[in-house]
């Protein structure tokens, strides 16, 4: 089986949808399940998810799915 490498993705379901009505309904978990199934089908072996350091709800969702927090820093810079 060949390895397709890693995937890095940013995530904040509530901010992207703008709807708090979707929170605590299992939508993010359902989407994550579909994504993981597809990544597995494509032989992706590593996933990194970026979420805010204070987004504890999202962090709990990912931890409940087996992800772990590695305290990696992400640095950004904007040019005007």
Give a nutshell description of this structure.
With 80 residues, the protein is α+β, with helices and mostly antiparallel strands. It has helices spanning 13-17, 27-41, 56-64; strands at residues 6-10, 46-50.
Features:
80 residues; two-stranded parallel ribbon; alpha+beta
Report on this structure.
- The protein is an alpha+beta fold.
- 36% of the residues lie in helices and 12% in strands.
- The protein has a two-stranded parallel ribbon with strand order 1-2.
Our estimate of the beta-strand percent is 5-15%
Mean pLDDT figure: 78
Strand order of the largest sheet: 1-2
Shape: globular
Q: Major sheet: size, sense and barrel closure?
A: 2 strands, parallel
Topology, please?
Layout: E1 6-10, H1 13-17, H2 27-41, E2 46-50, H3 56-64
Parallel strand pairs: 1-2
């Amino acid at each position: 089986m060949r390895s397709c490498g890693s995937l890095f993705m940013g995530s904040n379901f509530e901010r992207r949808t703008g709807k708090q009505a979707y929170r605590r309904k299992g939508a993010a978990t359902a989407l994550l399940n579909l994504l993981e199934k597809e990544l597995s089908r494509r032989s992706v072996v590593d996933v990194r998810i970026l979420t805010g350091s204070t987004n504890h709800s999202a962090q709990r969702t990912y931890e409940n799915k087996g992800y772990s927090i590695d305290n990696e820093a992400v640095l950004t810079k904007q040019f005007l």
